[in-house]
Amino acid sequence: MKRREFITNFALTAGLVTTTGFLQACEKYSEKPAVRTKNFKADLELDLISKNDYVHVFPGKSTQVYRYDFKLIKGNKNRVVPVNDSYLGPIIRIKKGEKIRVNYKNLLDDESIVHWHGLHIPEEMDGHPRYVIENGEKYIYEFQVMNRAGMYWFHPHPHGKTGPQVYGGLAGLFIVSDPEEEALNLPKGKYEVPLVIQDRTFNSDNQLIYLQNPMERMIGFLGEQILINGKPNFKMPVESRAYRLRLLNGSNSRIYKVAFSNGMPFKVIGTDGGLLEKPVTKNYVVMAPAERFDLIVDFSGMELNDKVELVSLSFPDPNSGGGMMGGMRGGMMGGSSGKRQGASFKLAEFKVTKIVNKPFKLPAKLSTVPAPNISKAINLNNPRRFRFAMSHMSWTINGRTFGMTDVANDEKVKLNTTEVWELINGGGSRGGMMGGMMQMPHPIHVHQLQYRIIERSTGNNSELWESLKDGFVDNGWKDTVLLLPGMKAKILLSFKDYPGLFLYHCHNLEHEDMGMMRDYLIQS
Ligand code: C2O
Ligand code: CU
Ligand code: CU
């Protein structure tokens, strides 16, 4: 019976996936690695299981969720730690250069596959939807971690179902360290705190509610309740000293303007792809879905029992700028259950429970992040252009939607080259009325690599830009960049080591599921 409620809540979307998703799921695209490679010597090995489960999010009735469970096979047990009493998957900690094997088993009643967001790994390890496995099947991941120290994450990637599966609880952190980072002596242990920010909506029975109607799907899921590490009303006792807060926006489509309630500034030390060259002082940062920020926050100026909240500040609703989306959402389409994009929220509360004298001095230089070398780009004066827009009532990239292994000519790049891509939100030949009215923010993610942002325009909503512009950190390594309505961004990408078929897509998971995702091919 519970099972049924759950299906009803989640099926609302699944039903909208239509037949294409179903047909694609039935085709077999490749051989699935179901056996361990004998000569691959893993430094860390775990079993990872996606399954239905129950957790206590609120007192009283437990909540039915999807959850990544795990069993450590090889490695010290502090390398893979559960997030206690949460639906979140384990936090995997690994060193750059180490090898990991993950024996993934899918126990969901639906197909799934695990994607390692932000990692530089071969195509068959990347969790492309063509590799989905069914209930009871296994997929073995084996790869060496080549990424810089940073916080990456993993989540499902079955086509048309990523939104509901992540929403249901499937996500975990993958934290990479390296000697350079270790030498900085950043706050660690209990002073290094990963915070996964997500929004959810619950019914009176403590059960998750996903999308309520087709217009909500068009916009993307926006919940009314904030969860931090899977918990509502997240509170943390702190000492009067510096902490390292590692933030992931693990929400399906909500954007946060993250700040402290007392206005205190903080230092940004890293972005999606790891440490910045130098710390940057900010009063707020803007986080689109999938983006990460590595922060140093100093509570040393506070007194015993002082409290400060981590909040998301209000900003103008970017979905209503054109009129039509906002109007439809509030009016003719029946509205939505969640709070609007840009609504303010309390995220977490920190209370000083111990006064210590531990002054912390952040090194002036954190890492070496050379300025993007645009002269290496083979198409500097003729960037490859990708337009993210509404076309014929669906979300598209250059007018196309996702096809499992579809690659157009303008989506083929060469191994060992560097290119400039211009990512454009909205407009185009079909722009006109619909294009202009249906503009929404799109966080654009490219698989397989970390890129650099070399240019960003202000977009066509100046009020929105003014409200958010100081929250972007564009001088680090990134795998996701937020395009506000009308915004263009140029990014510099280098295709290295692994040829193959990889995804690029909007990380608004409902947009992704609707097909605002394409393959690009790295040709050797
Ligand atoms: Cu975080 Cu293609 O995904
Ligand atoms: Cu990814
Ligand atoms: Cu989008």
Termini gap: 52 Å
CATH architecture of the largest domain: Sandwich
Hetero groups: CU-O-CU linkage, copper (II) ion
CATH topology tier name of the largest domain: Immunoglobulin-like
Number of strands: 32
CATH level 1 name of the largest domain: Mainly Beta
- The helix/strand class is mainly beta
Poorly predicted ranges: 1-28, 325-336
Provide the domain count.
Answer: 3
Note the total helix count. Answer: 9
Our estimate of the beta-strand percent is: 35-45%
- Computed over alpha carbons, the radius of gyration is 22 Å
The residue-averaged pLDDT reads 91
CATH superfamily of the largest domain: Cupredoxins -  blue copper proteins
Q: Assign an overall shape.
A: globular
Helical percent range?
A: 10-25%
